[in-house]
Amino acid sequence: MSELNKLTISDARAKLRAGDVTSVELTEACLKTIEDAGTLNAFVHHTPEIALDQAKAADARIAAGNAPDMCGIPLGIKDLFCTKGVPSQAGSAILSGFRPEYESTITLQLWDSGSIMLGKLNMDEFAMGSSNETSTYGNVVNPWRRGNDDAALTPGGSSGGSASAVAADLCLAATGTDTGGSIRQPAAFVGITGIKPTYGRCSRWGVVAFASSLDQAGPMTKSVRDAAIMLAAMSGHDPKDSTSADLAVPDFEAALTGDIRGKKIGIPKEYRMDGMPDEIEKLWADGTAMLRDAGAEIVDISLPHTKYALPAYYVIAPAEASSNLARYDGVRYGHRAKLAKGEGIDDMYEKTRAEGFGPEVQRRVMIGTYVLSAGFYDAYYRRAQRVRTLIKKDFENVFDAGIEAILTPATPSAAFGLGEMADADPVQMYLNDVFTVTVNLAGLPGIAVPAGLDKQGLPLGLQLIGRPWEEGDLLNSAYVLEQAAGFVSKPGKWW
Amino acid sequence: MSIDKDTARRVAHLARIRVEEDALPALAEEFNAILGFIEQLNEVDIEGVEPMTSVTPMPLKRRADVVTDGGQQDKILKNAPDAREGFFAVPKVVE
């Protein structure tokens, strides 16, 4: 059987259960495709032996009957997840050589459910970036191109390796993480689905921390149904993460009824940005019409503090990062700088961190240090935390008024060229997350769904935002949007 | 609020990141661009608003105050750049 790597999780599940295909065959198809896709630089650590061992075990389990939904499904794992005995560097040189002695809760749950690890996926260093250009492994390349133009495009970031790998069918699905948009923005840039669940739905234990109050993991998949299936396997209470919610995990897939009649969907006027490309505007209007045609009630809403989400984020996230990344000091793991004679421990810290962290990570750690430093804490950090309360309140107000989901564009543009933003100041790059970052600040679930192509042939995505813990309902709305948009385009293979 | 070279040097030191003297002016300029963006927060009326401490309010779970983990010195030292005799080794700290 050819091109097994192109299957969705749900199709592969059916074929595995019917005995039409084995997990070993699926896994071998993916491994072969990965081998031929080095140009994309998506997979940075390959684990074929682990994959084939897991695949054999999965086949035995499927043959025995009652295997879980994810059993036998080959996945790519973002480098941010600690995987036992397998390099886990968070895309950073400072963790070079680090092989965790433990497994993250999410990956452990995935392996327990029978999923297959093909390898580790490239990402922006410590998940800080929107273009996957800050990685110590080098840039990831988007499998999509602008028509016949061979300029290399970004897959977005920080989960750029995950996005590129899923879009290029190197794996059936991948894990991602999202602190300000790092699942949804890359998903939109490559024409796949990505969901960031409610804060606390997935355990953060064993996932390298960037900004702990914002970080959430989620699946990046080829369909909304796949997102529902994989999210269920990643979710659940974990005593090792004190912020993980002790709530039962609903059957997300069962929520995909395709019926959203009477559902109130809000269109926030503040997301209509100055200078937004007409194509994004049109995509948003088209998406709104699709949901209306499906029977939803469309309501104009206001989220008045939207404009302040990015500046608040660029206080809170660097502040938390400066604290979280203090652990990279050359003592316990990873890189340690060579010292000259007479240099002491402070030299070791300073040289190790200067050599090990790239420019964007250094910048954010220092900004975070500054906003938390004596005399500035109230003016910056505390103020940002108060603005964060207001941003969350905006959402609570519309949900209290009966709104069940909110539709917005996922990104302010289609994928841009690698290197195109090199001369822009850092703030220009931060604007990529303008539509996604509010969701992290409010701890809500958000999903990016591919909804169309721009005039250069690049995918564009829409975002749906849901109420806390209502991922099932959110996925159902996304499912309706997916069916109506009928996005089936794939990048032509040039790599 | 404008960050000068001296402030940039101080912040770099607080963050324990070595920044060479000739790189400080550019760093200060980047800080100023980012802080300029952040300054927008001053427009927001935050009178009487509590700072957010937990995005999904939930009580922290309690457990008995007993040892639940340990006895894995070898695993903990496994990734250390320099470990000796069961300890992390670092340059001399106390004179």
UniProtKB/TrEMBL annotation, chain A:
Q: Where is the active site?
A: K78 (charge relay system), S158 (charge relay system), S182 (acyl-ester intermediate)
E.C. designation(s):
6.3.5.7
Which chemical reaction does it catalyze?
Answer: L-glutamyl-tRNA(Gln) + L-glutamine + ATP + H2O = L-glutaminyl-tRNA(Gln) + L-glutamate + ADP + phosphate + H(+)
A Pfam family that this protein carries is Amidase
- SUPFAM superfamilies of this UniProt entry? Amidase signature (AS) enzymes (SSF75304)
Superkingdom to which the source organism belongs: Bacteria
Keywords in alphabetical order, please. ATP-binding, Ligase, Nucleotide-binding, Protein biosynthesis
Tell me where in this chain the Amidase domain is found.
25-475
Name the InterPro entries for this protein.
Amidase (IPR000120), Amidase_CS (IPR020556), Amidase_dom (IPR023631), AS_sf (IPR036928), GatA (IPR004412)
Function recorded in the entry: Allows the formation of correctly charged Gln-tRNA(Gln) through the transamidation of misacylated Glu-tRNA(Gln) in organisms which lack glutaminyl-tRNA synthetase. The reaction takes place in the presence of glutamine and ATP through an activated gamma-phospho-Glu-tRNA(Gln).
Q: How does it assemble?
A: Heterotrimer of A, B and C subunits.
What's the family?
A: Belongs to the amidase family. GatA subfamily.
**What's the protein called, per UniProt?**
Glutamyl-tRNA(Gln) amidotransferase subunit A
Q: What is the lineage of its organism?
A: Bacteria, Pseudomonadati, Pseudomonadota, Alphaproteobacteria, Rhodobacterales
From TrEMBL, chain B:
- Source organism of the structure: Pseudohalocynthiibacter aestuariivivens
Similarity comment: family membership: Belongs to the GatC family.
Q: Which NCBIfam families match?
A: gatC
Query: What is the protein's quaternary organization?
Result: Heterotrimer of A, B and C subunits.
Tell me, what does this protein do in biology? Allows the formation of correctly charged Asn-tRNA(Asn) or Gln-tRNA(Gln) through the transamidation of misacylated Asp-tRNA(Asn) or Glu-tRNA(Gln) in organisms which lack either or both of asparaginyl-tRNA or glutaminyl-tRNA synthetases. The reaction takes place in the presence of glutamine and ATP through an activated phospho-Asp-tRNA(Asn) or phospho-Glu-tRNA(Gln).
The upper taxonomy is: Bacteria, Pseudomonadati, Pseudomonadota, Alphaproteobacteria, Rhodobacterales
Pfam families associated with the record: GatC
Q: Which InterPro entries match?
A: Asp/Glu-ADT_sf_sub_c (IPR036113), GatC (IPR003837)
Q: What is this enzyme's EC? A: 6.3.5.-
- Top-level enzyme category: ligase
- SUPFAM superfamilies with a match to the protein in the record: Glu-tRNAGln amidotransferase C subunit
**Reaction catalysed?**
L-glutamyl-tRNA(Gln) + L-glutamine + ATP + H2O = L-glutaminyl-tRNA(Gln) + L-glutamate + ADP + phosphate + H(+); L-aspartyl-tRNA(Asn) + L-glutamine + ATP + H2O = L-asparaginyl-tRNA(Asn) + L-glutamate + ADP + phosphate + 2 H(+)
Record-given protein name: Aspartyl/glutamyl-tRNA(Asn/Gln) amidotransferase subunit C
Q: Which UniProt keywords apply?
A: ATP-binding, Ligase, Nucleotide-binding, Protein biosynthesis
> What Gene3D superfamilies would the database entry show?
Glu-tRNAGln amidotransferase C subunit, N-terminal domain
